[in-house]
């Protein structure tokens, strides 16, 4: 049994146990939210306490290095809301974990890339054969790497793909233990200092394997506290609008870049470029046919089918619509229109 399957089976077991035990959260109006180190506009709201102000709840923000770890924490009940990529989301939904997608956080582009070391001898894709490439398993980067290898006609078994979380990957790359890695910032920036980009997730998307990041919620928490989830979505959407209305104001020396760098560990001077690497969907766009209106359901299903083909999960579900909810976006828009 693969590492991925063992982790997902553990998560599924934890989720079932937690569901049977019933919800054991929010007795003191406190919620635990899992975030990752990717750069996005809502990190400013996180840094400045906007979520706490809007919900009236205390928030325990917990940093995770991979979507697989976030899924395991949500499955166990330790985390109620979390940030994950479309690949771990598809894997978790395929295991019928009690989650819903409530906000498409990013349509991924150049923010995730495959970088190969200048010392690796890798000049083109075919040179990857026999090389060691690090990537966080069950992540969007992992999915994109496998999709890229398939596009190039390279058997994934001919490449030594190692499961490394971003900090571990950056360290292994610096030591010369791996020839390259597919990852996001701040680890991505460290890899690029001594290497070159072989492909980005924007390229892989054009080849038919788009990826996205999403905010998900435990279904029992959402059912018990819909207003908290709605306010969370509302603040996130407002943050994205603040950026989309005036992206040029988010310079390397701006307050926004400073706050984002503090939360993510990225360099302030890298923040403007990283923000431009992805698409940040606004609240009115979230419930469109391309996103929570059905597009994300299809994307999750397509990702799950690919993971089955790659033998990363045993089976896909016939329908993933239960794992996507546009209700909270619609309620957030209603709140904004009444202000």
From TrEMBL:
It comes from the Bacteria. InterPro entries: Peri-bd_TauA, Solute-binding_3/MltF_N, SsuA/THI5, TAT_signal. The keyword Signal applies. It is found in: Periplasm. Keywords: Signal. Transmembrane segments: none annotated. CDD domains: PBP2_taurine (cd13560). Residues 1-26 form the signal peptide. Its main location: periplasm. Residues 30-247 form the Solute-binding protein family 3/N-terminal domain. Pfam families: NMT1. PROSITE patterns: TAT. NCBIfam families: taurine_ABC_bnd. PANTHER family: ALIPHATIC SULFONATES-BINDING PROTEIN-RELATED, TAURINE-BINDING PERIPLASMIC PROTEIN. Belongs to the bacterial solute-binding protein SsuA/TauA family. This is Taurine transport system substrate-binding protein.
């Amino acid at each position: 049994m693969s590492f991925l399957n063992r982790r997902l089976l553990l998560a599924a077991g934890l989720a079932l146990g937690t569901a049977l035990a019933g919800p054991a959260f929010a007795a003191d109006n406190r919620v635990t939210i899992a975030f990752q180190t990717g750069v996005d506009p809502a990190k400013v709201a996180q840094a400045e306490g906007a979520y706490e102000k809007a919900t009236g709840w205390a928030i325990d923000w917990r940093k995770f290095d991979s979507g697989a770890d976030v899924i395991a924490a949500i499955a166990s009940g330790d985390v109620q809301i979390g940030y994950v990529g479309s690949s771990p989301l598809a894997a978790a939904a395929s295991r019928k974990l009690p989650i819903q997608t409530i906000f498409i956080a990013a349509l991924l582009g150049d923010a995730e890339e495959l970088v190969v070391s200048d010392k690796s001898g890798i000049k083109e894709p075919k040179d990857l054969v026999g090389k060691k490439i690090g990537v966080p398993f069950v992540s969007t980067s992992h999915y994109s790497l496998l999709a890229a290898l398939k596009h190039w006609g390279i058997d994934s078994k001919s490449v030594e793909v190692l499961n490394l979380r971003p900090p571990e990957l950056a360290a292994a790359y610096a030591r010369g233990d791996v020839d390259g890695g597919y990852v996001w910032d701040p680890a991505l920036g460290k890899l690029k200092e001594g290497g070159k980009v072989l492909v980005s997730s924007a390229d892989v998307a054009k080849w038919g394997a788009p990826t996205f990041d999403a905010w998900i919620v435990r279904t029992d928490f959402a059912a018990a506290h819909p207003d908290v989830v709605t306010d969370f979505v509302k603040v996130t959407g407002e943050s994205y609008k603040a950026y989309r209305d005036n992206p040029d104001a988010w310079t390397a020396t701006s307050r926004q870049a400073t706050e984002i760098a503090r939360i993510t560990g990225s360099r302030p001077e890298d923040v403007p470029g990283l923000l431009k690497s992805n698409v940040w969907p606004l609240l009115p766009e979230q419930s469109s046919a391309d996103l929570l209106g059905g597009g994300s359901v299809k994307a999750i299903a397509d990702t799950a089918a690919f993971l089955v083909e790659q033998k990363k999960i045993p089976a896909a579900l016939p329908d993933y619509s239960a794992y996507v909810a546009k209700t909270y976006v619609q309620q957030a828009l209603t709140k904004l229109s009444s202000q």
